[in-house]
Design a protein that fits this description.
By secondary structure, the chain is α+β, with helices and mostly antiparallel strands. The chain has 4 helices and 5 strands.
C-alpha cells in the first residue's frame, strides 16, 4: 500500500512539473507576437495622434480634427477655420442656421446649404464621445465663437468711432480757438491801421 502511495505521489509530481514546463513554453513562444502586437498598437496610436490639427478661429481653439487619406489634418483644419471665419464676418448670417445632417456614416455640419465639414466616427474617437453628441457640441462651440468674433469687432468699431468723434471734436475746438484768436488779432491790427490813418487826416486838416 505504501509503495502504491509513493508511486502515485511521484506520478502527480511529474504531471505538475510537466504542466509548469508547458505553461512556461507557451508564455515564452507567445511573447514575441504579443510584443509585436503591442508595438504595432503603439505605432498606430502615435500616427493617429500625429495626424490631428487644431481648428483655430480668431485665436480661439474650437476643437481638434483628424486628417484622412489625401486630406491632411492641417489642411482640413485650416479650411474649416476659414469657413467659420467667413460666416462670422458675414453679419447677415444667422448662427441658428448651423445644423447637422445625420446618416449612418457621418454627421455633416451645415451652414444653410453650405457644408462646413464632415464628422466621422474616427473624429469622435479623439474625444471618446458619441459622434452625434460630439457634432452638437461642435455646433454650440462654433456658434459661440461666431458671436465672440462679432462682439469683439463691434466693440472695436465702437471704440474706433468714439475715438474718431472725440478727436474730431477736439480738432474743431482747437481750430475754433485759434480762429477766434486770429480774428481778434487781425481786428486789432485793422483798428490800429485805421486809427493811424484817421489821426493823419486830422493833422492835415
Amino acid at each position: 500500500m505504501d509503495k502504491l502511495t509513493a508511486a502515485a505521489s511521484v506520478i502527480a509530481f511529474y504531471r505538475a512539473l510537466t504542466s509548469i514546463v508547458l505553461f512556461c513554453m507557451i508564455i515564452i513562444t507567445s511573447y514575441p507576437s504579443l510584443a509585436a502586437k503591442n508595438q504595432s498598437i503603439a505605432q498606430s496610436g502615435q500616427e493617429f495622434e500625429l495626424n490631428t490639427a487644431p481648428v483655430i478661429v480668431d485665436g480661439n481653439l474650437l476643437f481638434n480634427i483628424r486628417g484622412v487619406t489625401g486630406f491632411p489634418a492641417q489642411f482640413r483644419a485650416k479650411k474649416i477655420a476659414q469657413k467659420i471665419s467667413d460666416l462670422a464676418a458675414d453679419e447677415t448670417f444667422n448662427i441658428e442656421d448651423i445644423y447637422t445632417k445625420e446618416n449612418d456614416f457621418a454627421s455633416t455640419i451645415m451652414a444653410k446649404e453650405q457644408i462646413l465639414f464632415l464628422l466621422v466616427d474616427a473624429d469622435a474617437a479623439l474625444e471618446y464621445m458619441n459622434r452625434t453628441v460630439l457634432a452638437q457640441a461642435y455646433i454650440i462651440k462654433i456658434k459661440q465663437t461666431i458671436e465672440e468674433y462679432r462682439h469683439a469687432r463691434r466693440l472695436s468699431t465702437l471704440i474706433k468711432n468714439t475715438i474718431y468723434v472725440t478727436l474730431t471734436g477736439l480738432a474743431l475746438a482747437v481750430a475754433l480757438f485759434f480762429g477766434l484768436k486770429l480774428y481778434r488779432w487781425s481786428d486789432n491790427k485793422l483798428s490800429q491801421i485805421y486809427s493811424v490813418k484817421f489821426k493823419g487826416l486830422e493833422l492835415k486838416s
